[in-house]
């Protein structure tokens, strides 16, 4: 039986608003053990903000003695100025192979999961790799 996204996706999705400041996203990433935030506007998915996007936008001097006012200003940017717009998405019934191919072909780290246009989860490359290892273990081959 093929594995589908609904079997492996995370349903506890952390979101930010388009007009939230990058300080909000930085605080979430600093405290969380994940690397993608879904960006919504009135509960509608508008984009993805990865930790990599955030780090690319801010200065490495933040929080150090070399920090400048300009470094602090970058954290005042809005999420929509840095996020990836119109992210690729999948439905919960999509199989593991299809989702994996989408991630690899598009060099992305996550796929928001939508059902009837509503955000219901997120699947990341780690989720796909974990599912692969579990499948291999269940089928008596080492991962």
Biggest pleated sheet = 4 strands, mixed
Distance between the termini: 19 Å
The assigned structural class equals: alpha+beta
The percentage of residues in β strands lies in 15-25%
Strand order of the largest sheet: 1-2-3-4
The pLDDT mean sits at 90
Low-confidence stretches: none
- Count of helical stretches: 6
- DSSP, total strands: 6
- Secondary-structure element sequence? HEHEEHHEHEEH
- Share of residues in helices: 25-40%
Rg calculated over all Cα atoms: 17 Å
Q: Outline, from the CA principal axes?
A: globular
SSE order and pairing:
Layout: H1 5-8, E1 15-17, H2 22-31, E2 36-41, E3 44-50, H3 51-57, H4 69-74, E4 84-85, H5 96-106, E5 110-115, E6 118-124, H6 125-138
Parallel strand pairs: 1-2
Antiparallel strand pairs: 2-3, 3-4, 5-6
Fold and architecture overview:
This protein has a four-stranded mixed beta sheet with strand order 1-2-3-4. It is 36% helix and 22% strand. The longest helix is centred in the last third of the chain and has 14 residues, at 125-138. The protein is an alpha+beta fold and 143 residues long. The protein is built from six helices and six strands; from the N terminus they run αβαββααβαββα. The protein has helices spanning 5-8, 22-31, 51-57, 69-74, 96-106, 125-138; strands spanning 15-17, 36-41, 44-50, 84-85, 110-115, 118-124. It is globular.
């Amino acid at each position: 039986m093929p594995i589908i996204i609904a079997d492996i996706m995370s349903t506890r999705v952390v979101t930010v608003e388009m007009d939230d400041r990058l300080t909000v996203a930085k605080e979430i990433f600093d405290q969380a053990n994940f690397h993608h935030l879904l960006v919504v506007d009135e509960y509608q998915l508008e984009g993805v903000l990865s930790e990599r996007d955030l780090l690319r936008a801010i200065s490495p001097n933040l929080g150090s003695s070399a920090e400048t006012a300009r470094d602090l200003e970058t954290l005042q940017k809005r999420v929509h100025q840095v996020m990836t717009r119109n992210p690729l998405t999948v439905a919960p019934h999509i199989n593991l192979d299809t989702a994996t191919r989408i991630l690899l072909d598009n060099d992305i780290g996550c796929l928001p999961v939508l059902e009837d246009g509503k955000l219901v989860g997120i699947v990341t490359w780690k989720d796909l790799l974990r599912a692969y290892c579990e499948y291999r273990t269940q089928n008596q081959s080492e991962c």
